[in-house]
Amino acid sequence: MKKRMISVWQATFCMALLLGNAAVAGEAGRVGSLKGPTSMGLLSFMEKEKEAEEPNFTFEMMTAADELSAKFIKGEIDFALIPANMASILYHKTEGNVQVADINTLGVLYLVTGREDIRSVADLQGNTVYMTGKGQTPEYVLRYLLEANGLAEEDVTVEFKSEATEVVSVLAQEPSAIAVLPQPFATVACAKSGNKNMVLSDLTKEWDAVGTGTLVTGVTVVKKDFAQANPELVEQFLEAHEASAAFVNENPAETARLTVSYGIMEQAEAAEMAIPKCNITYLDGKDMQEALTGYLQVLMEQNPDSIGGTIPGEDFYYNENGKENKN
Fold first, then answer.
1. pLDDT of 215-226, one tens digit each?
2. What are phi and psi of 35, to 5 degrees?
3. Reported pTM
């Protein structure tokens, strides 16, 4: 009998599928998100599930995208709110077993500094920029914008930190430092610096200025086999997520209170100021596919490795498998 050799990745992946499918039988759906705008968009949803006698979903927040994606692949969570480019990478790594269910955040990145001579990406030449997100959406957005503004990679030194709070600390100690931060941390950095001249430059506007379509930051993914086995649970999640995102934008004061109680932010006042800048949204169906495909195409032209090598196929989009587009 001929033995078949398999890679470590294949073995891990197969085991993850078995564990993941077994874990959800008769249990609540497990949701993982990053501490920031994606989790903020879930807060109303989380509150309702916490108050339910028999909750249908459980939630876990993490600070690192790599940790979140690892848990997702291992089958320890069923829904993951991750950077848009990481969804494409996981699609390729799992041989198409990952689907995007919705877009949950658009542009959330801001250029933050107390220096009066830095007002745009073009002004970054010869400077050091502190940020998080190495190998993820933030880095690729900045790299693309630098190139679009005529700057070479060596023109700007990028120093990465593991968490946004570390970048906030740098700015608090030295307000004239330059950073790229997502909301709500950009607003927190301005508040903590004590520098009244601290400014926020919206990188979404910089993106729009070079004519590249929609800037997508975060998406929600689910494994294809999980979605096929649990269609009602997926639909229930999407309906609740859509309602929760709407609640955030319509009730910033109440959401700000929840960001503090869930440990996302320390001060409700700063959270309320940040929420309108967080671009928390809900897009599914054709709107989702058009926005995400266009964004991934931009990254593909810049660096194919940033999306796993190629643009994913039609099966990458959950809503293309029958869910009505409500947008």
1. 999 999 999 999
2. -70, 105
3. 0.81
